[in-house]
Amino acid sequence: MEEKALEVYDVIRTIRDPEKPNTLEELDVVTEKCVEVQDLGEDEYLIIIKFSPTVPHCSLATLIGLCLQVKLQRCLPFKHKLEIYISEGTHSTEEDINKQINDKERVAAAMENPNLREIVEQCVTEPDD
Amino acid sequence: MWLKFNAHPDSRCWYVAWNPKGTLLASCGGDRAIRIWGKEGDSWECKTVLQDGHQRTVRKVAWSPCGNYLASASFDATTCIWKKKNDDFECLTVLEGHENEVKCVAWAPSGNLLATCSRDKSVWIWEVDEEDEYECVSVVNSHTQDVKHVVWHPTQELLASCSYDNNVCVYKEEDDDWECRATLEGHTATVWGLTFDPSGQRLASCSDDRTVKIWKECQPEEGTDAAWKCVCTLSGFHGRTVYDIAWCPLTGALATACGDDGVRVFKEDETADPDQPVFSLSAHVPKAHTQDVNCIAWHPKEAGLLVSCSDNGEIAVWNYQSEV
User: Fold this and answer.
1) For B24, which of A57, B37, B179, B203 is 20 to 30 Å away at the CA?
2) What is the pTM of this model?
3) What pLDDT is recorded for position B1?
4) What residues contact residue B171 under an 8 Å CB cut-off, 6+ apart?
5) Does A43 touch chain B (CB under 8 A)?
6) What are phi and psi of A106, to 5 degrees?
């Protein structure tokens, strides 16, 4: 399980913050401990990520959540289900943000918005991609 | 016993619908296309691809009761009406007005009314006349969030919608205007799907809270509006979000599409009190698809035949046999 968690962490730690020229790892938005992996059986895993946005700004938190969703959907090599949450107590509108981030229809529609898509692509693309 | 085929290569298949005769399937997806499938011997062949109707994901498709028209709802904020001409479809008109993604479109059984709903929180009701002209007759803003699905009552001019705001709303026409007559509260998360039972006396809803709720219209006291009460909750059956639910018009069986990749069929206990129905799990295919199941629909003519579609782009046709 720890191995899987590290695999997941490896994918998310290099995501760039939408505002600052740093990675989510550098800003402590995500840490190794923030990834939880549960075995769902039949080679499928439930991944739960709790991230801590640096600023209380609502739209940035949702944007980070979106980046996490997109990069993981694209890069995780094993079968998984994903849940992404804001770390409790880090935000005043936690529930609202968590609901949005975990609504796959909203995530899909957001990624069809050219402006949002561009920002997300810039955050998730590896330098050597 | 099932048949599976890849419908929307490299993208999600969001919805699939049988035409009223049950001879065709319409599917739509993240590739912005609508595909029409027909049975050739033992397999389903793609008859038509409608690629240029929408600029973004096509979220749902709906056949008119006569089977000659197809409506498609898209994230590009429009709803397209297509007319069937032999094996081809021609875009008749584009319904505009919603401020952002259209999440659902549904034809009333009469064929004269259409309902659409959107992330803009509204439900629009459109009237269509004999000259194929569409006109919006009502815009109702009863939900406080993204409206996910709309469904018409099988026999009455009654509409139901469900939303990201966790509620279900029921609408009736009053003085040429449509208004919300009841708000059904109870789910603790987004309600994704709705379906009426064959008689229209009950409504089933499915949610992100992993439950299915059955609602029944209660006889009103004098002078008050009818109220809908939750008479049954199916919990503990679904591992993740339940995205779609369908009540079989022929057998009364209830089928669900789930984010845990499974398809389930529930049967009603015939000995239970009609005001306190009991449903039990009759069939469960745990890995119906390799990813989330987004849609489930019963064949309109052949009892036991089901179609489902998934995030992995596949459509599957199932044969459900209940032990009598």
Assistant:
1) B203
2) 0.96
3) 56
4) B123, B125, B140, B142, B158, B159, B160, B161, B178, B179, B180, B181
5) no
6) -65, -40
